[in-house]
Specification:
Radius of gyration: 16 Å
Mean pLDDT: 95
Largest sheet: none
Order of helices and strands: HHHHHH
Strand content: under 5%
Helix content: over 70%
Low-confidence stretches: none
Distance between the termini: 18 Å
Shape: globular
Length: about 180
């Protein structure tokens, strides 16, 4: 197995773990996230990333959850964000669990394909980065999304919200890989 095949397998294992959490939450809450407007979803991403940074800085968690579950949440909320961009938000839960999982899988596959292209071009540079750098890059991407939202999507030269969400997903998966994917 070459280095790219190893990364692909690790990526798929990390996303599978995130998907299992997503599926369990669909069981418990249905697709309640369908009511989230873009700005609310962006704020949810911000809360998760900010908590990771706080845990990295202090090493102290008063609620008992560590960094790893927060990166998993960033993957899942990133995919939810892509679904919401595609479908728009709703006033009620308008899709069932099976439909949500089909959408999840499609967007997760798109993130994998993007990662493969970028990983080839950057020659696995992510492996030499610190997890804290992923956190900072994710926070930067969230700030960019906020600004795009504030501009009503009218940017001059920048990537769109979808590209930033894909990067958040991929940086989060890299963090999960570096933190150790559970088998």
């Amino acid at each position: 197995m070459n280095k790219y095949e190893k990364t692909n397998a690790e990526f798929e294992a990390a996303v599978a773990e995130c998907r299992a959490i997503f599926a369990s939450k669909l069981h418990d809450y249905r697709a309640s996230w369908r009511i989230m407007r873009p700005s609310s979803l962006t704020d949810q991403l911000f809360i998760k990333a900010k908590r990771i940074r706080q845990l990295e800085l202090t090493g102290e968690s008063l609620v008992g959850e560590g960094i790893r579950p927060e990166f998993m949440a960033l993957v899942n909320y990133g995919i939810v964000g892509l679904i919401q961009l595609e479908k728009g938000f709703a006033d009620t839960v308008d899709i069932n669990a099976d439909e949500a999982l089909v959408l999840y899988d499609r967007h997760a596959q798109e993130a994998l394909e993007l990662m493969k292209r970028k990983n080839h071009d950057y020659d696995e540079a992510w492996r030499n980065m610190r997890v804290s750098s992923y956190t900072d890059l994710i926070l930067t991407k969230i700030e960019r999304i906020k600004e795009i939202e504030n501009l009503g999507g009218q940017t001059l030269v920048s990537e769109g919200v979808d590209s930033n969400l894909m990067d958040i997903i991929n940086y989060s998966v890299f963090a999960l890989i570096k933190l150790g994917v559970k088998s």
